[in-house]
Design goal:
The chain has 522 residues and is an alpha+beta fold. It is built from 13 helices and 17 strands. The chain starts with a helix and ends with a strand.
Length: 522
């Protein structure tokens, strides 16, 4: 029994000793792994640790330092390549930063607190690095410092990134503030995040309001424009594609045009984060475009006039001229019948004179207008024309109803407006429909940036399917039973075009006609 008990005790001691050895080995492995983990962390963060135990037998510059592997790497050495000392480290301090470091250390010693300083070092290879250094002094019971320990972090890449961002930000700001384009940055709720000076000036001039960060972009828009802009932004959000439009406003009698572009700002997952609004002043381009269109229209009109002129010369002039030449050839052989031939000669010459007069009239219409623009009251024009027609035509009797409530006056060329009223009222009187009481309605319309004049009668009408493309031609007549030359509508059309206007006709035979003229307000 005693032997058995002894064996149990021995085996128990052996097992206990084995467990204790395993624990020691495990702890050693943990220390190795912990050390490795620390080195990895220091390497990732570019942070190294150092310490110094003060030795009274050595000068300060000869005091030994203990560096972690990362401190060696920050200074440009391989781990444990040299024996680091205070003097060695100070040799790596950039001379301009030496005073800054000494001041921080002195203040830490005096206050018995840690020191914290950012300075530059020059590595073994000559590379300049920016480091952040923080140290804690160790004191004995008597209050004397006996050592110091701290950390050093390489900030070079971070500083370079920050400097790069600052440079990029400064460059971007310089570009935005020196561009002719106005930029506004909005968040996903259309709140204003930022804008450049040019955008502020454009909004102030165009809307009379000031841009303010944090305010909603729609608060500065005119009420009638809000639905349209919202629809554009919604379209951009749905399609994730840029949208744009043009707008204009008038300042001191001059029209200013702007091209607006709205672009989405999308995240890495294509989610909508906000938008940018870019605005460019395109007034000069727009004026050039309008001038080009106006010049093109004038050239087309002149070309048509030349074609009509050539047609008249080849047809209307040739016949009377041939008659005159033929009659003059007969004069030497004529006897008592000469008086009859002279009457024919006179008639042909009269017709030729009338053609030349009409041609001069056509050329006069196409000359640049020399009349000034002036304020014109439509009621006065209407009354003057009616009085003139009554004086020229004793039987002038037509029911004319006017409505100038929307536009009572306009700024335009008075002789042209008067002639337009005269020709269209006169035509309504001349082309009456038998058995129907003649009636003419004249109405003015406010069409926003333009003014409309509408003349509607209940006369015999015109077959537009047959004559629509000849409606405003020179010498074009559509009712041979009514006397005329075919010049009235031609002059109306020419004068409307010269005033940058437009004229269209709607007509149904045996029902009546409606002439609609649109003119710019200024």
């Amino acid at each position: 029994m005693k032997l058995t008990h002894l064996s149990s005790v021995i085996y128990s001691e052996i097992e206990k000793r084995s467990i204790e050895e395993d624990l020691v080995e495990f702890q050693q492995q943990l220390l190795v792994k912990e050390g490795g983990r620390t080195r990895v962390i220091e390497q990732i963060a570019e942070i190294g640790s150092w310490e110094m135990i003060l030795s009274s037998s050595e000068k300060l510059e000869d005091q030994s330092l203990v560096w972690s592997d990362q401190v060696f790497e920050i200074c440009g050495y391989q781990p444990n390549e040299i024996e680091p000392t205070v003097g060695l480290f100070y040799k790596h301090i950039v001379s301009e930063d030496m005073e800054l470091l000494n001041e921080a250390i002195s203040m830490g010693m005096e206050s018995k607190k840690s020191f914290d300083v950012v300075h530059r070092i020059c590595t073994l290879s000559g590379q300049i690095k920016t480091v952040h250094q923080r140290g804690e002094f160790i004191y004995n019971q008597a209050g004397d410092w006996i050592g110091v320990m701290g950390i050093i972090q390489n900030l070079t890449e971070e500083r370079n990134r920050v400097a790069g961002l600052e440079t990029a930000r400064a460059n971007l700001k310089n570009i935005l503030e020196n561009t002719d384009t106005g930029y506004i940055l909005l968040d996903e709720h259309c709140q204003i995040v930022s804008f450049n000076d040019r955008a502020g000036v454009m909004v102030k001039t165009g809307y009379g309001k000031c841009l303010q960060v944090g305010h909603n972009y729609f608060d500065m828009l005119q009420e009638d424009r809000k639905p349209y802009i919202r629809s554009l932004i919604n379209k951009m959000i749905n399609t994730k594609e840029p949208v744009g439009y043009e707008m204009s406003y008038e300042e001191e009698g001059q029209e200013h045009w702007f091209k607006i572009r709205i672009r989405p700002i999308l995240g890495v997952k294509d989610e909508f984060l906000g938008l940018t609004i870019a605005s460019d002043d395109i007034t000069e381009q727009k004026q050039a475009q309008l001038e080009k269109e106006s010049l093109t229209a004038r050239l087309i009109q002149r070309n048509q006039a030349l074609e009509q002129f050539a047609y008249i010369i080849s047809h209307n002039v040739r016949a009377p001229l041939a008659n005159i030449l033929g009659l003059t050839n007969l004069l030497p052989v004529l006897g008592t019948e000469i008086d009859n031939y002279l009457d024919g000669l006179k008639e042909s010459a009269s017709k030729l004179d009338q053609v030349v007069t009409d041609l001069n009239r056509m050329l006069e219409i196409h000359k640049p207008c020399m009349y000034p623009q002036e304020q014109i009251k439509l009621t006065e024009i209407h009354e003057a024309v009616c009085n003139s027609l009554q004086n020229d035509n004793e039987d002038f009797d037509i029911d004319i109803r006017t409505d100038f409530s929307e536009v009572g006056s306009l700024i335009s060329i008075k002789p042209y407006i008067k002639n337009i009223f005269y020709q269209l009222i006169h035509n309504s009187f001349r082309y009456l429909r038998k058995g129907v009481e003649p009636m003419l309605e004249i109405k003015s319309m406010d069409l926003g940036e333009r003014i409309g004049l509408q003349f509607t009668d209940n006369g015999i009408g015109i077959d537009l399917d047959m004559y629509g493309d000849q409606m405003f031609g020179f010498y074009k007549r559509f009712h041979q039973e009514v006397e005329g030359k075919g010049l009235g509508l031609y002059t109306v059309h020419s004068q409307v075009k010269s005033m940058r206007g437009n004229i269209v006709v709607k007509s149904i035979p045996d029902q009546g006609s409606s002439f609609i003229i649109t003119l710019p307000k200024t």
